[in-house]
Amino acid sequence: MPNSFFNELLQQLSERGRAMLGLARDAAARGDVAELSEHLLSGRGEASGVALAKAVLDTYANAPLATRLAFLTALAERFGADPQKVEEAIAAYHDKPGAATLHRLHTAAEARRQELMRRLNLAPGGTAALVRMREELIEHLPNRPDLRAVDADFVHLFSSWFNRGFLVLRPIDWTTPANILEKIIRYEAVHEIHDWDDLRRRLEPPDRRCFAFFHPQLVDEPLIFVEVALTAEIPGAIAPLLAKDRKPIAAEAATTAVFYSISNTQRGLGGVSFGNFLIKQVVDDLKRDLPNLKTFVTLSPVPGFAKWLERERGSEASQALDAEAKTVLAALDEEGWHEDPATAEKVRKVLLPAAAWYFLKAKTPNGRPVDPVARFHLGNGARLERLNFLGDTSAKGLGQAHGLMVNYLYALEDIEKNHEAFAGSGEVIAAAAVRKQLKGERASRTLVPVTD
Amino acid sequence: MPNSFFNELLQQLSERGRAMLGLARDAAARGDVAELSEHLLSGRGEASGVALAKAVLDTYANAPLATRLAFLTALAERFGADPQKVEEAIAAYHDKPGAATLHRLHTAAEARRQELMRRLNLAPGGTAALVRMREELIEHLPNRPDLRAVDADFVHLFSSWFNRGFLVLRPIDWTTPANILEKIIRYEAVHEIHDWDDLRRRLEPPDRRCFAFFHPQLVDEPLIFVEVALTAEIPGAIAPLLAKDRKPIAAEAATTAVFYSISNTQRGLGGVSFGNFLIKQVVDDLKRDLPNLKTFVTLSPVPGFAKWLERERGSEASQALDAEAKTVLAALDEEGWHEDPATAEKVRKVLLPAAAWYFLKAKTPNGRPVDPVARFHLGNGARLERLNFLGDTSAKGLGQAHGLMVNYLYALEDIEKNHEAFAGSGEVIAAAAVRKQLKGERASRTLVPVTD
Amino acid sequence: MPNSFFNELLQQLSERGRAMLGLARDAAARGDVAELSEHLLSGRGEASGVALAKAVLDTYANAPLATRLAFLTALAERFGADPQKVEEAIAAYHDKPGAATLHRLHTAAEARRQELMRRLNLAPGGTAALVRMREELIEHLPNRPDLRAVDADFVHLFSSWFNRGFLVLRPIDWTTPANILEKIIRYEAVHEIHDWDDLRRRLEPPDRRCFAFFHPQLVDEPLIFVEVALTAEIPGAIAPLLAKDRKPIAAEAATTAVFYSISNTQRGLGGVSFGNFLIKQVVDDLKRDLPNLKTFVTLSPVPGFAKWLERERGSEASQALDAEAKTVLAALDEEGWHEDPATAEKVRKVLLPAAAWYFLKAKTPNGRPVDPVARFHLGNGARLERLNFLGDTSAKGLGQAHGLMVNYLYALEDIEKNHEAFAGSGEVIAAAAVRKQLKGERASRTLVPVTD
Amino acid sequence: MPNSFFNELLQQLSERGRAMLGLARDAAARGDVAELSEHLLSGRGEASGVALAKAVLDTYANAPLATRLAFLTALAERFGADPQKVEEAIAAYHDKPGAATLHRLHTAAEARRQELMRRLNLAPGGTAALVRMREELIEHLPNRPDLRAVDADFVHLFSSWFNRGFLVLRPIDWTTPANILEKIIRYEAVHEIHDWDDLRRRLEPPDRRCFAFFHPQLVDEPLIFVEVALTAEIPGAIAPLLAKDRKPIAAEAATTAVFYSISNTQRGLGGVSFGNFLIKQVVDDLKRDLPNLKTFVTLSPVPGFAKWLERERGSEASQALDAEAKTVLAALDEEGWHEDPATAEKVRKVLLPAAAWYFLKAKTPNGRPVDPVARFHLGNGARLERLNFLGDTSAKGLGQAHGLMVNYLYALEDIEKNHEAFAGSGEVIAAAAVRKQLKGERASRTLVPVTD
């Protein structure tokens, strides 16, 4: 099997009259990706660059797992910077500090794999192949901290190649090609799309929109997409938005655009952020097309809440929950608690203050909110607008947050100010109603860790 | 005037609810591009990134020359690396050499303007604005060697952004939009296109082709383009190819594709090479569409020949020309010499051997051919195929090369081998007929500098 | 409901400053489509034509069934030709026969509804609305023979508007927009497409193709489409072609293109034929892209066979079946007969000769084959190539043809000859193997009705 | 020459395996277009229709003039209706008047060339070929009244095929493909476009627009186009609009859209009107994009004025001019009269009242304005808004109208009313200022012929 692949590969190359020199051909035949890569790097010109880059990527893609991992390891070990050149560059810099010697130092300290990655990107489909390579790398990272440097170089290059200036926003609707729509179905990470009929209900009604960022090199791959519902008011629960039998409204009648699902699609592009650009551009586009829209808001999950609450319930030192609250929350352990109105009401009175604490006072070691979705939207300059009790009573919603959902509000005139406050002092901007839930507390607007 | 611009700019920004914080607004109002840039760089998140990047680029574009030059200078002086961080990174590396400390050193030694350029690229039209900024920078370079480090960073980033993987090849023909065609007219650098009728003669006949590379971020700008004539044999002169009254042949009847003009269009992308990719992809595309094509060849100018010959004629130590040759070549000083058949014939016998010497033996200090066009095609793996006496008798052709033109042959099966030989030992691959012109010499195939 | 519609409609019209004169507005408000149509027809210029045409079509589309039927009746009764003008034109023609008076007669005898339909076509979406109107008309025809004249005028105009010169062939594949693909699912009339996964299996594998004709005025509506399988030999059964787990082959390895399903989509375009153009253009396109394809063949159902056979079995005078054959065919009445090999083999020996008779000797009153699919392909110049026993054992296949399928062969060099023979003398062109099945008969190649 | 053409043609046909039967091939070889046409018409099916249609059109296009004229004559003589069938159809109708017999009569009276034209339209490029055929026919008409019946059939079919519902409006600008732009240069019929720079001045500035109608079958051919200037007021002269050095204004600052040139491009489509649809759709599109536009007006030539005035000056019975006026107007015979302010002023006082008479009172025999441009715009529902003395002092403008230009105003809310008045009673709707120019007259708003 590998043999026939290499044979075919070699035949193709020779058919195209692009005979690689002897050593490269041997390396390809042996499936030695790292040696092939050395040939690619050593080429003084670019005459054979495209063909060699293709050979490296094809050989890698068709190699068994062990070979692929060996290559990733080689990227870390063999394709770093040359220590001797680094020392020489340091000496030269110390000898004569200045732009020229700094530039030399910068270049000397650059891992050789960066140039290798740039050359691999020459191959047709090279960008996509590199994204998949990093996807594989990410899976190894937990067990292989030595590969982190390789990962950092991937992120560095991808940040440059996937610069927002190169991304293209496209509406996704029922006239979008099926091969792209099936990826929307597959990649939806927040509220699962069950089948094509379900997808159509999210795209075709007049009060639904969907937008995605694309990159010219990955034409059939949405990089990130957002699903939008146009409504008459800020919704507090997801089920009515997705109900099969709901009545759509006219787009022009809507005052509110609800971002109810944002999904990244490429694990290999993790760490390269486009989400904030997406939301802001979608807000701009929607405002232009539908001037009646006044409110831009999310309906978001709270993925870390149940886990945090469990810890607090088990912690004697919990500042968030007192004994009485813990007693009430024991109801959460009974399945179906939310279907009994009396129980639900009792829980509500305790759970919402706890949620307020979770958002406003619970912090990671470096002073950020513990909820990752909160960090994303607050970092974008949004405001925590409302806590929605039992907003998502699906198994997933109950499991991760006891049904809690929240709205983050994107008020364009405040985004900058909110963002600066959050980025600077870590301040969580929240509506008064949210802050009031902190019972017994002086619900000051400024609940920064320092002042608590 | 500038005031009204800034007012309008600020109004726009505030209209979009993207109020910049006080200091950035002041900087914009003062037209202080460097300070605005500091704001852009210091932004912890990207909430205001796009608006600030736009403000920097707009302010720069509308500023007077002195302000613009001051900003370029600031890029060199204020936006380099931080020496203290560099020293710390060096110390850390020496303390514990390894991937992590190397990465830190690499990052510390990176000029801050690189990150600045990446952020400027966020603005709509950012890439084009940066290309124009470098175009301006290049003009200052001869007098301002201190700006070279800035230039190197531009080249580094452009090489990544304009990676061949991101370029798109498009045919240019008479159905191409007029705004692109006018750029073909304007940018043609080899054989001037006089007007739209002239352009049409190069695009519309069945035996003419034109191809250009485009980048998704510069949609209306061909980056480089090549004009192709389909012929029945290798041509020796340009005039018949461009004659108004020539008879086109059917594309299917052609055996030879002649690349008779290759023009780069963006001075701001100088040093980022796409030419070799262009030729190779065009060869591939033509072969697929017209399987009868067997020969791929250029008809190229020899821009450095006249100047070199003048030097040799004036040099007593010339190895290329003996006294007799110099006497004959005195005819070149008479205007119209080429129109007298007898004179022309005498000159031919001396000029062609001199040209062979020029290509095969004249070298730059680092052992490369002195002719820049020769360096380009030989570096791509082409072979110097034929010397064409009086191939271009236009004023320009006579002025730069006494009418000499040459053909470089792209034989796909030899490209790799040729390229390696040239890149490695500097060997100039030339057809036997060219080598024979070196009279009195043992015209060995291998005329590497070492053996001279 | 209708009121709000008319109000909105009228408001729109007045908003656009296209106030209709008093009477037309009254007619619209009353929903009197016929009177609105008179206004449209009487307009001397076209100033209000588009708005009035839209009003007629919108009013019709939103009217209740009785009103719509009343309008169709009015088309027949009120919008015919003017008898007085016809008589005058006849008199003028008799008085002075010639091109001018003939033209006047032709014009006078034209039903006024033709001009009305042409004017309705001015409205945005007018063509689609008229196609739907005829779709409705067709349903009434069986009970309303008086509407046949209206139908004939529709066919006349549609034949002109949907002239093959105006149709565009487009490949349908997995990158086709979903709103078109769902119509492929819905309209597939031969072998049902169960869901999107089923659809994908017919479009995405390398050995599958699909093509459709589109019309510029009905952009999202495929008018007719054909599904194609690329194979290594002529298939005899449908199930293997559609099997979920089959192994695709490379398109370049295929020698045979099998048209296994052809579906018209617009009932309203019944009687306007494009099927033969579709097949011939698809053959041309496939040959150009895949030169290895040598054989173009259908795998077709035999929709009239079971019904015909039942009649023959019950007829004492049957020439097609003798007593022995009838006895054997009694097995067909047992469910599951085809699953018992011995029974199936006995049936096969009788059923295939009967099928040969069905195709070659059974005729309609005007001497054509009784099978409608046979009439279509033979009329296109195809040849009846092979009878496939148990080619379709689905419930539908057993029900309509006891599992029989056939192949029609499109041999480009014979199409014209075959077509002329069929169109002229009604000769059924069939392969020798088919003709041999006529047992006891001298299976002459020419089995024209005359000789029976 | 014709031989080689036919040979090649026949070879092509046979290569495609579409051998025509013997007689058709003979006809093609002889260049007998009419006989080929009979073959096309007689084909019972459509198996060879496309190939035969192509053969007819190619043979026609490549035949010498005499052959082509013979074919047009044959269309008139041989391809009319069959008199015997007409008589039978008349008899059947008289026997039993009704929809069925009327339909038969209509069909019998239809010239056979109509069906022939529909079948010719099957060929690739058939529509364009038929338009060119009629273009040629039109040139013969003045000398060949017997061909008028053929022309009428062309118009009938073209009106159906080029129904406004099938036309597509496209903006023409500087990004439009060059092969279309060159047709704009070539076809501009009102104010000549001198070269590409001139064209660019009409397309590229922010206050210029151009729109054209296209038909899907003639993709590269604009059928009609209109050039628009966006201005701050209604202009009275053409020169400032076209001046090389004028200062463009921002599109958003414009209040007025001026249609200053409307050109039909296809002589072969004469009599098929799209002009009124074009103007109305352009008005709609402009209003949507630029809501500040309030006034839609033409700046139009007066092509019949100079000729009419000459007649009136020479007529003793002239009601439009008295003796004094004739004396003043003698100045028009001096070249350069308009450059002398005093003369010009004297002329103005007489010429404008004469122009008012020309528009409001001079009528064709059937009661319409004598000016063709006036008939077009008034028929569309526009109002004669202003007379512009010396609006066009080019040689053409002076020659046809002594420099006079006029504005027609398209006031959307009045279009319908104006159109009905003009179409009904022939009333010329004109602004009060125009009517006042009728000196000595009671300038009633209603100057219908009856009152003259």
From TrEMBL, chains A, B, C, D:
GO molecular function, one term: malonyl-CoA decarboxylase activity
GO biological process terms on file: fatty acid biosynthetic process
Domain Malonyl-CoA decarboxylase N-terminal: 79-162
E.C. no: 4.1.1.9
Pfam families found in the cross-reference section: MCD (PF05292), MCD_N (PF17408)
Domain Malonyl-CoA decarboxylase C-terminal: from-to ranges: 165-410
Keywords assigned: Lyase
Superkingdom, taxonomy of origin: Bacteria
Enzyme class: lyase
Keyword Lyase attached: yes
PANTHER family, per database record: MALONYL-COA DECARBOXYLASE, MITOCHONDRIAL (PTHR28641:SF1), PTHR28641
Protein name: Malonyl-CoA decarboxylase
Provenance organism: Chelatococcus caeni
